[in-house]
Design brief:
Shape: globular
Largest sheet: 8 strands, mixed
Helix content: 25-40%
Number of helices: 14
Distance between the termini: 16 Å
CATH superfamily of the largest domain: Alkaline Phosphatase, subunit A
Strand order of the largest sheet: 7-6-8-1-9-18-2-19
Structural class: alpha/beta
CATH architecture of the largest domain: 3-Layer(aba) Sandwich
Bound molecules: 2-acetamido-2-deoxy-beta-D-glucopyranose
CATH topology of the largest domain: Alkaline Phosphatase, subunit A
Number of domains: 2
Length: 478
């Protein structure tokens, strides 16, 4: 009887905590990133498939990427749950300040030490805990981590055409095949658009709207493909992005930021610099020249922010790593930072402060783990890692996110009514659960005690089995 009581308590506890569990019910996760898909890109385009996904699952108003809001750093935050200053992939470009050598985005994918800098992507965490994972084109795929790789991976070839919708569909089918035939638990899938189109034509262009339609068709295709492959029952699909996009002002509209034109500033005071990369920059002054460089730049342009690394606003979480250079620069939306003279001609840009609404990314999720037709408030993308680990039933590595930020989206927690009262309702629920749990335990202890004594008393009068059965029905109807 005591064993029975205890197991009933356990059952009850596991219902409340609801960790996704056993082999048959094990849930899978597909993490998809559409590079540069700003949070509001579905507002001026007809997106029937994204709308259906929102009805069938969860939609966040927007999600906040980490700073620096650029591709590799932000994607690695999705994969590790760490802020950029903690995972170390602080830029799209690898660089060596001694040799002043740099490598562009694609080559940097293959610099193992750049990526494998102490944080593990979720596909490795999953493999280490007996799950099988894969990655297709996701930033960080080319590297190994502590010598490990996912079960299957595919790096895009150099000069890959990121816009080819036929390839998008093939990749979607390939990934669904991995889930089905290789029984993978987790896959990360990356699409390089609408980022490219947003850069080239600007976020408000008809070209960008066309590309969002292509994304929408692909989302429909991906969900159909999951059905066709018979994996949709256990598959959770999370779709998000690394950052947003904003218009760049130029053509004499504004005074551009060009460092060489700033009085008192000289490139000869630097031993290394990383500028001409959108709105962000980092400088390494020569020994003894930090103050000079800093003072020359500090109030030089009303839309240029200049910080010593150790004085960076804490909310940006972009200071602690040794790779971050002693002076950090960033520009307000609409501006980019030029070095010697303007060499940047994008109509759209990102890399700005992650507080800016235009830098926010979109988020949708659908699958057995998620509520249906639920719209939630904003959260930081650093929390998505913990959410995915929870659904997969694996223990996360040390990370900067928390399940509290997203768990109201899960069916294992009560459905929130609206944005703010979520925490309050959850607290009330948890409080009531605790009280109910306590009462249940007290009740069971009392009952089993009573039954034991009764049993002893009545042993001579009737069979104890009948009695136990009666008591059991009493307990289970509680
Ligand atoms: C940069 O290059 C120097 C000189 O070749 C080398 O000693 C150093 O280890 C390199 N640093 C990094 C981080 O690659
Ligand atoms: C991260 O990389 C830096 C060089 O950029 C190196 O000094 C440091 O030891 C690395 N940390 C880990 C944990 O790999």
């Amino acid at each position: 009887m005591l064993v029975y009581t205890a197991s009933l308590c356990l059952l009850w506890a596991s219902c409340i905590l609801a960790a996704p569990a056993t082999k048959q019910t094990r849930q899978k996760v597909l993490l998809i990133s559409f590079d540069g898909f700003r949070w509001d890109y579905d507002r001026d385009v007809d997106t029937p498939n994204l709308d259906k996904m929102a009805r069938d699952g969860v939609k966040a108003l927007y999600v906040t990427p980490p700073y620096l809001t650029i591709t590799s750093p932000s994607h690695f935050t999705l994969l590790t749950g760490r802020y950029i200053e903690n995972h170390g992939v602080i830029h799209n470009m690898w660089f060596n300040t001694t040799t002043t050598q740099t490598k562009p985005y694609y080559q940097t994918q293959f610099v193992n030490e750049w990526w494998d800098n102490g944080s593990l992507p979720i596909w490795i965490t999953a493999e280490k805990q007996g799950r099988k994972s894969g990655s297709l084109h996701f930033p960080g795929t080319a590297s190994t981590y502590q010598g490990m790789t996912p079960t299957i991976k595919e790096v895009e070839p150099l000069l890959y055409n990121y816009k080819d919708e036929t390839k998008w569909r093939k990749n979607a089918d390939k990934v669904m095949g991995w889930f089905k035939d290789l029984d993978l638990d987790f896959v990360a899938l990356y699409f390089g658009e609408p980022d490219g189109t947003g850069h080239r034509y600007g976020p408000d262009s008809p070209q960008r709207r066309e590309m969002v339609k292509q994304v929408d068709r692909t989302v429909g295709y991906i969900r159909d493909s999951a059905e066709r492959h018979g994996v949709s029952n256990h598959l959770n699909i999370i779709i998000t992005a690394d950052h947003g996009m904003t218009d760049v002002y130029r053509n004499g509209l504004v005074e551009e930021i060009t460092l060489s034109k700033i009085p008192g500033f000289a490139f000869s005071d630097l031993s290394f610099h990383l500028v001409d990369f959108g709105p962000s920059g980092m400088l390494l002054p020569k020994p003894g020249r930090l103050e000079k460089v800093y003072n020359a730049l500090k109030d030089a342009h009303p839309h240029l922010h200049v910080y010593k690394k150790e004085e960076m606003p804490e909310r940006l979480h972009f200071a602690k790593h040794e790779r971050i250079l002693p002076i950090v620069l960033w520009a307000d939306p609409g501006y980019v930072i030029n070095g010697y003279f303007p060499v940047q001609f994008h109509k759209g840009e990102h890399g700005f402060d992650n507080q800016e609404l235009d830098m926010k990314a979109f988020f949708r999720a659908v699958g057995p783990a998620f509520h249906k037709d639920l719209e939630v408030g904003p959260f930081e993308t650093v929390n998505i890692y913990a959410l995915m680990c929870h659904i997969l039933g694996i223990t996360p590595e040390v990370n900067d996110g928390h399940l509290d930020a997203t768990k109201h989206m899960l069916v294992t927690s009560p459905r929130p009514t609206s944005g703010e009262p979520v925490n309050y309702l959850q607290k009330v629920f948890m409080g009531l659960s605790a009280v109910a749990g306590f009462l249940l335990v007290v009740f069971m202890v009392v009952m089993s005690h009573k039954m034991l004594t009764k049993k002893h008393k009545n042993k001579r009068l009737e069979s104890s089995k009948d009695l136990t059965d009666k008591e059991v029905s009493k307990v289970t109807s509680f």
